[in-house]
Amino acid sequence: MLSFLSLAVWGCPSDPPRTNSHPNVVIFLADDLGMGDVGYLGSEIPTPHIDRLANNGLVFHRFYTEPYCTPSRAALLTGRNPIRYGLSSSVLRPWSESGLPSSETLLSETFQAANYYTALVGKWHLGHRKKEMHPNSRGFDHFYGHLGGRIDYFTHQVSYRKLDGQKLGLDWQRNGKGITEKGYSTDLLAQEAVKVVNTSDPGRPLFLLLSFNAPHPPLQATPQKLEEFKNIGSPQRQTYAAMVASLDDAVGDVTRALQEEGMLDNTLIVFMSDNGAAPAKGGRNGQYRGGKASTWEGGIRVPAFLHWPQKIPGGQHTQQLISSLDLLPTIASAVGVPVTSHLPLDGKDLWELIHLGATEPRQDLHFAALNGELLFLTTLRETWKLVREVDGRDGTSRERLFDLTDPTERNDVLAEQAKIASELSLSLDKWLALGKGEIQAEEEDPPVQWRPPTDWAKAAE
Length: 461
Description:
The protein is an alpha/beta fold. The chain has two domains: 22-362, Alkaline Phosphatase, subunit A (3-Layer(aba) Sandwich), CATH 3.40.720.10; 365-433, Arylsulfatase, C-terminal domain. Helix content is 26%, strand content 17%. The chain has twelve helices and 16 strands. The chain has helices at residues 2-10, 48-55, 69-78, 107-113, 185-199, 223-228, 235-260, 297-300, 327-335, 351-355, 418-433, 456-459, and strands at residues 24-30, 58-60, 63-64, 117-123, 142-146, 173-174, 177-178, 206-211, 267-273, 304-307, 316-318, 322-323, 365-371, 374-381, 384-391, 397-403. The strands form three sheets. Strands 7-6-5-4-8-1-9-10-2-11 form a ten-stranded mixed sheet, sandwiched between helices. Helix 1 packs across helix 7 (235-260).
């Protein structure tokens, strides 16, 4: 029945089903997409392609990520907490010298070792200074997109909020060579991802990470999409909605390509956002407090689901507490690929649990976010959540405790639940010790001597 539904929407396959020894894996990773920004969760923004996959799959209602782009991607690809390697609480800037350490084994490297063809299409944001930091050196056979965190959607030049209007160089490449192309980045990424699907070796399974930069700022949309949303909310929300709609079209294009190549039924699709939306930039997080750059629910609880017609019956929902840290071991387990990391994982293999529709308690989750002078630190234990706010100006801190059976985080119950609060606070301190008690941050302002390259692909050593 699921296959019939897929055929009805995305067309009949032009080739017979592929029979690889392992299933294909496709991850759709949105950027700054909130719980109030997708149709299947009640948004006013129509997202029919995303909704169709969600409604025919397994929807997560308690899926957590890191509150920023860089640590979120690091957690997804390593299965290890970013505090272990200094990327826990902020993002890499254009002038950053650091990146994801080579000692970490990535999900892409795990699949590459299992003879998958591995492709990253889109945003990297895990290191750009040296070639060995780039995707082609980190387990991806193919890379098309941008190294940094923020680009102009039309010119593909680096964009940075404090340096708007300055020429910061081209950050658009294919396999290490900068390319100048016309087109809206979301549309170009979709075209490249479709090409990867269409030209992939039928004898090898495919691992594709389609890492959108949408709907991350700068808020830019095509005129055609803007026209469609001219009656939704404020001008800012209209642009944001148009960007989400383009992302949804891209998901539809890639899903259709999978169907036409006879691959869809044997493809595990993961859809997720890297962190919550930024309300000041047009996004919405539904009923949840706060947003990106905080550890409130709006910053770390995101839309996510799995779709796999051969293995996952449609119409499922789960309240299982799950984190982006869990995806590496869970996906590897689901498709029968051995994890190759020589370092212990913080993520947990939840495949058998969620596959059977069950839930169980899991170990504490921890999060950090530097937002100006304020540092948010959090421990999450099932429905209990401790939030510690540290003022960087004087070092003073404040703790609050919430029972997420009321997910709006409005009622601080620390006074009534002092024992639970003390346990979660101690758990947080132990986690901080993994990073030697320090939270590292990249400077928000460029060094005086810093000069941006004209081509970021060429600039790396």
